[in-house]
Design a protein that fits this description.
The protein has helices at 19-29, 39-42, 52-70, 83-94, 99-107, 134-148, 160-173, 183-186, and strands at 7-12, 33-35, 76-80, 112-116, 152-155. By secondary structure, it is an alpha/beta fold.
Length: 213
């Protein structure tokens, strides 16, 4: 796929709002790939609490993964996490954000952001933090999207309703992307998708050293 013709859709928002699951569901439905969250592969390898410089490494790794998967996408490329998430994370943890991350965020040319609502129950996870601050973070994401004039739509609902709303947001804005197969027939196949469904043969270990951006 020519990168210049890709439609990039970022799945963004607070933790435990279904970003990874929805990214996989949408990629499967539209017969394309999604860019997984690099932090989920990076952090378990640390064997220590993360530090500020780790977030910069995570940001770089996220972009390397995006570049690597662009060629495997068809019309659409879905992104589970992007620079907005890392900016919010860094600012909350360290009360600042590296210029490198802010610059990359300003340069993000994504066609649509799907901001995940906090209407799902919190699911405990060793990598997740601050369940009591979900409303704060949701408003932070919304404010930053508005301030940056990024095109976005809030995605709410539980179970199939969440996927349905995301599907409608995408096909209304990009009607030519609608898969030829019947939506009603295919959507039942989206349940229970593994996080790595679209990771395929991409080896995350290749991204831990010597990336150049």
């Amino acid at each position: 796929m020519q990168v210049s013709s890709l439609i990039k859709i970022a799945i963004t928002g607070p933790e435990s709002t279904g970003k990874s699951q929805l990214s996989a569901q949408l990629a499967r439905h539209f017969q394309t790939v999604f860019v997984p969250e690099f932090a989920r592969y990076y952090l378990p390898e640390l064997a220590r609490p993360y530090e500020a410089h780790d977030l910069l490494s995570i940001a770089r790794g996220q972009l390397v993964m995006e570049k690597a998967l662009e060629s495997q996408a068809n019309t659409l490329l879905f992104l589970d996490t992007e620079m907005l998430v890392i900016k919010v994370w860094h600012e909350h943890a360290y009360h600042s954000c590296p210029e490198w991350i802010s610059q990359r965020l300003a340069q993000q040319a994504y066609d649509l952001y799907l901001l995940m609502d906090i209407d799902l129950p919190w699911q405990a996870d060793p990598l997740r933090e601050h369940p009591h601050l979900r409303t704060y973070f949701f408003e932070k994401y919304r404010q930053l999207l508005e301030a940056s004039a990024f095109p976005y739509q809030i995605i709410s609902g539980q179970g199939p309703a969440r996927f349905d709303q995301a599907f409608e947001a995408i096909t209304q804005q990009f009607p030519h992307t609608k898969p030829p197969n019947s939506y009603k027939v295919r959507k039942k196949k989206n349940a229970g998708l593994a996080f790595q469904d679209c990771f395929n043969s991409l080896k995350i270990s290749l991204f831990y050293a010597n990336w150049r951006l």
